[in-house]
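How it folds:
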Amino acid sequence: MRFFEELKRRNVFRVGIAYTVVAWLTAQVVDLVLENFGAPAWFMRSLLVVLAAGLPLALVFAWAFEMTPEGLKKEKDVDRSQSVTHKTGRKLDRMIIGIMAVVIAFLVLDRFVLRDESGNTVPANETQKAEAVETPDPVVETGPSVAVLPFVNMSGDTDNEYFSDGLTETLLHMLAQLPELRVAARTSSFAFKGKDTGIAEISEILGVAHVLEGSVQKAGNRVRITAQLIRAEDGFHVWSQNYDRTLDDIFAIQDEIATDVASALDASLMGASTPSLHGVSTLNTEAYDQFLQALEHQSVFSYSSLGVAEGLLKNALAIDPGFVEAKLALARNYQMKYGTGLVDEETAWKYMEPLLLQVESDNPGDPMARALTLNFQIQNWALGTEASEREAIVAELRSLLPEIPTDTWVREIVARILRLYKAHDDALEVLQAGLLVDPLSADLHRRLAQLYQDQERFEEAQAAFLKALELAPNNPNTYSELGDLAEERGDLVSALDWKRQAIEKDPQDHELVAELATDLFRLGLAEEGRRWASRCYALAPQTSVCRALQITEARAQNDPARALDLAISMLNDDVSLRRFGWATALNTYKNTMIDQGREQEAFDFLVSRYPGMENFEQAPENFKTLVVRTSGVELMAYFVTKNEYLAALKLVEKQLRDAQLPWLDDPWRRVKRHLMHGETEQARELALNEELSESVANSLNVKNRYSTPLYRELSESPEIAARLRQRDNELAALRGEVAEMMLKPEWQQ
């Protein structure tokens, strides 16, 4: 009891209370500051440790020392009759009360001022808040989570890199089969390959509680695999194991590692027991080796790499015809080749369909096989497809996402389709969920950027594209899309340079080369356009893109006869509609015939070439029929009665709207529509206020349009004529700026 009384007399209790309150307030203030300045999490943890360690020191200090009028003295040296601890105690009481008032004020400020309605801290200053780029809020999920880092190749042979990467990918896929376990996607996990990044930082970036890492040492027919599961919070090794096997046992090793990891994550988190896990469907190591090499090439996603991947996958299937994963990879390879324009729709599906049917037969309900099938249907569905049917297909695709959570490609497809049909909120939701498991996916950030661009949120789109570029600096698509964004914002100089950089990343992509050459022709830089066009012709002269470029070049050279011959040649060959090459041919043919006053002849040609085109009351069979019908109606304006023309136009416009084509309401299309209805005044107002108000950088072909007979009356308007002269001056200045840029060394390569 005397000891307790002595503690009170020496103010040990008061010092303890005062220290605790001050420490808590200090921690809260520091936490708020760190939240706004983005300090690492370890700093706060270290501060808490220091503050906790300080409490016993403060108590010992209060017991051993006393503050006297002469200063700090050891308690044993103070005469009890001269002690002032009672006065010091009253001062401490007042200090504690004052600090508690500050604490209460802080809590009120934090609750009602510094936090928004959702409970999030408001940025420290408004400038920081204004400059912050809006990104999707992460979806918070609970439960066990793991990232499988690329196993390190210890074989001393870079040619074996594909083996260690393939092993990692297989393990990742196997663990993703556990429904309660959230697994970081391959893209994000592989972002740390070859980097000396700490486990805690990886955990924070990917939002996972555990990290699986390891190494592979392959020598002849033997392989040694070391794997270890680490708890990110404290760096504790939950589990580790070495596996020494022959390559004949590689599949058993994968099953064993995945099962061990799942068990180490604790069966109680998963359920009563860990389910059995299955990797690839082959037991042939040679086929598996070919498959892993193919995946390595396929991930590059270039013209040449897709060809190499195709050959390797065919080799794998020749060795083991029942290799399901190889069939799916080959089907996706054809899908990717179609997406890059290497094969047309018919060819792609001819090779994809039997592969997908085989997978479905061997493995009914396989989610990836179904996803590939649905994606192809979406890309190529008939225009007569009911909206409800399209919605059902998209809904089914979305339902497959939980079954293949680490495959962001399917998620990209879903987001793209939702964007196409203006379901922006749904697309954002899909991308947010994807970024939860794959936060370092350049492709997901690209899709997010495209979504922002659709909504004219250009600053956010730019930031998302640049993030994608940071994550995958060699992806030519990102450079090209940054070029498209710059062009939409009216900065053609930057747009062209972004496209040049895209070509540097993939010099074999003739479509990128053709796009750049087309812009230069349209800009009036004929010599520079021909230089880049020659590269396209050398790469792929018979593709629709390069043949359409020949038409553009002929028009730039003011050679309508040659442009017409080339257009008819393309139409007669029925070149694929890929990248609208065929549509360019049709448009050139139509406009050239109008310029020559041969509208009836052009209409008759289209009817003979595309039977049924003139049956406007009948729903079009496909996109091509609708495009041809649209051109046919435009030609009719010149040789039928006004009533006949307007009746046909009304039917076709309804078909265009039913098809939900995104470009239907572009200003220039509405101007043309008014002119074809004879509504010259409405056309003039729309042209001045919208079409001719656009930056000259993203509407280079306006002058050509206004020189056609349909626009002649409109172009004679003084206001329109003045605006066209102004645009000529702007175009000349822009042409000079681009020509100067192209003198730089990087453009001469």
